[in-house]
Batch of 4 targets.
Target 1
Amino acid sequence: MQQNFQRRDRDDKRESNQMVFGIRAVIEAIDSGKEIESIFVQRGLGGSLFLELKAILKEHNIGFQLVPVEKLNRITRKNHQGVIGVISPITYHDIESLLPTIYEKGETPLLLMLDGVTDVRNMGAIARTAECAGVHAIIVPRKGSAEINPDAIKTSAGALYKIPVCRQDSLGKIGRFLIESGVQLVVSTEKTNDSIYDVDYTVPTCVIMGAEDVGVSDELIRISDKLAKIPMSGTIGSLNVSVSAGVVIYEAIRQRG
């Protein structure tokens, strides 16, 4: 029984985002190579040390949110100096480095790109399905994507610790890189008459899913190889994005045998 409690305690610690408080602490976390999930900065903050932090954030292309001091005080009672950083519980990957290793293993890439999926539970559910199906990696934008936080980790049943998540500055740029690398882009969208069952997924493929409200960006639609929709005959007209991702991914797995 005691062993179970110890294991549960380790899991709880693993599924928590580590926070760092204070300008200098956040600077040191960035300099040490920590993956920063988000940074909260008090509105109106100034001073030379803050200017140093801003320069480092710009150098590493890390965004931050300006918030009232009351929000920072709700997060912690410690002396935060107007800055709180949240360190990601996972290590992000770079698809430009990862893709060649997939080819080198003699495997046919199956990738999943999430354009504007901001709900952490959808992120977790999608990651769980993708890991179970053997998807090689999930690609997300650096800005405008769901945080990888304890809710996402728990919803994924730990899959986010196992499947590579690639956080990229520009999905359009990455989409063009994938095309040049022999990977077809298949956008799941209602803006077509073609079915997901008409697409050949046995070739290197990146499936692109968009946000439930606005779908996939026009830029990605313009450069994609295929547009495909999930056939539906009910009256609702749409599926949750995590369910949609599972439908498309498993059609690819079915074709690959």
Target 2
Amino acid sequence: MIWGWGRNIKVNNFVHHGNVDNVIVVRRSRALGDDAGATGAPQNCFNWSIKGIEHHGVINEYVIRIDPTVGLRVASTELTGDIEVAVNGPFVTGGIVDPSMSSFSSLTLTVRDHVNLKTIIGTPQQIFAAGNTFASFSTGVTDLRVQALRNARIDGVEYTLADDTAVAVTPPRAAGMYLITSDTSLLRVFVGFRTAGGAQCVAVGTEPSLFTADGTDGTLTGTTGVDTEFTVRASSAGPLYFENRRGASVTFRVTFLG
């Protein structure tokens, strides 16, 4: 329905009947003219305001997605604003957000299933972490922003990492503490962190076996840390990184405190 990129984009009251691949795509157009032959990722996609968008029909992929090519994707820090979309929830085939947007925390989505009367409000990062399908949410309004302020109901936000993969999580503030818990891997540890003034993660007390809190500033890509271990790291760019190299999938929860 909507495809493009740019600053201060505003679209209101757009209704479409029929099948689409995605409702909104943040991506260069690959068209003739000024955008011909684009070689880099879109930048400065700030202050988007897209309201009153309705789609009636099948969505073959996602409500919102970004470029499938890594080098051409808009960065998580380059997309900000508010988007409101209503869709037929049972006919969303892939998910609410593109999995490649799992670290996007500066864009607020309000996505409504006007068949089952469900409304989900949150960032792409929050929606992806909470299940990313309308079936993951109860009828009524689920405001993930409120849950984040309440430390995600004290249970933390749950993530599942396959072996040799990592996830970036933007903390609510630049310094504090977080608790990692896991039912299946006995991964339970309290970590102090900061992402400014010398980014680092430090475990409080004795580190569990097969766990490392990396005290240096940087990222984790999935194979950065020691093989067989679960590694955490902070970046001065803003995110915290969680990496699983334990040899099997690990499901864990992160709760921010202080």
Target 3
Amino acid sequence: MTADSKPPRPHVANHPLVEHLRTALALAAAGVPVLPLRAGKVPFGNCSACHGNVCGGRPNMKTPGRCHCPRTCHAWAAAATDHAVLTSPEWAGAWRGASALAYHPGGADLTVVDLDNADAIAWARAALPATRTVPTTRGEHWIYRGAMQSANAVRPGVDIKSRMAYARWIAPGTGTMTDLPPAVQALAVKEGSTVRSASHAVTVAAPVGGGECRHRTPAYLDRGIAMAEQRITEARSAVHTTVYRTFLAVLSAHGRCGCLTDTHISRLFSAAQAKGESPRHCTDAWANARTALGV
């Protein structure tokens, strides 16, 4: 969604399923990752193959990385822009049961300031620069260009939805979208901490080598890391799973001979964080991949 573009909202009478899907496809074509919501404005629950997030999102799972389920079972991380994914048979049941549509703001390089009541709106008008606004049931969404970490209850009646979060799609909104201001970024910073960029220090150590090195030249390893970065960067849906499987592939190829360095891992973490993953998620996915491979 560009600063002044407004994705069309096709109207299809008497068929909410078709209207939700057509709106989703229009948003996806504009680069906005979308997902269906069930009753209660919540994502569809995990399917049996993904129950307990066994795909590798948590370090205490016994079978990380075993999931190959393409259904909409990972909330914001399932949001997609790929037409083939959104219209696939695996998603058909979710669209049939959808009561609303949501999108992943961070995936579209956007931040939504969710103002839940009149007092919150009055505060925003006094404290924040004007931008595109969307009326909601109880308040307004203020949409800025630029992504940041999400945070709930940063002020009374104010939530921030960007990376690793979803927001309900209501309408394109009115007004010209402006850049994410420091005043909004500061809301997500806890007292005593500082704002950090997307590139964080690596919190894991490179594997200790003991096996025979298969890399004939340093370029072989560099090429593999570059391909892994590209795979993460180009992920259009299921970001958690893509990051985990990429880490798994890198460790499978390079994790036993000791050639991986902290610099290589930092490159992978930076690519994942640029897609909205937190340092904690990166660390957990790396640990899960090492456990699965025994390295």
Target 4
Amino acid sequence: MRILVVEDDPILSDGLRAGLSLTGATVDTVETCSDAEAAIGTVNYSAIVLDIMLPDGSGLDLLRKLRSRRDGTPVLLLTARDSVGDKVSGLDTGADDYLAKPFDLDELAARLRAIVRREGGRAAPTLTHGAVVLSPSDLSVTVAGKSISLSRREFAILSALMERPEQVRSRAELEERLYGWQDDIESNAVEVHIHNLRAKIGRDAIQTLRGVGYRMGSAR
């Protein structure tokens, strides 16, 4: 999943990017509401981690704008404001979850997985398609019960395809899941990762619709 972190503390922001990247996420970071709005307007994020107190305004105002235009991107408020009243206000404004600072990174990652799962209409913590079972919590994949080793980007592509196995994902959509702003996009990276995935989970596991994109097929 691709996450936007809106946090003006550079040390915390860098730590979140590094820590969430270890959980398989692609992470972009911004420091202000205005930069967050620009980012949200150009990238389809799986979720947003949003501080409330930002240099150019309140994260709650940004959240209101998102919800007023029916943007349902899951939002987790991450803030030092930890009173019950603050939490109630944040959730009633449209946040999907609320976590007070200081926090545990593993808990934050688990909460993000939960709100993304709910937004996708899934109850199970794993993704299953045929014989393939993918677990976002520990970045593991099995095929017919056998553990399969994937790179971080192979895992990201497979996860994107398995979230909605019947939906065709374009190359651009998959690149958006793989690369953050700081990454250089390799011209044939998606094709290479798809080739490697087929070798590991089955030649027919991923279908190519020429000129359109990719979707899940049948796994061995």
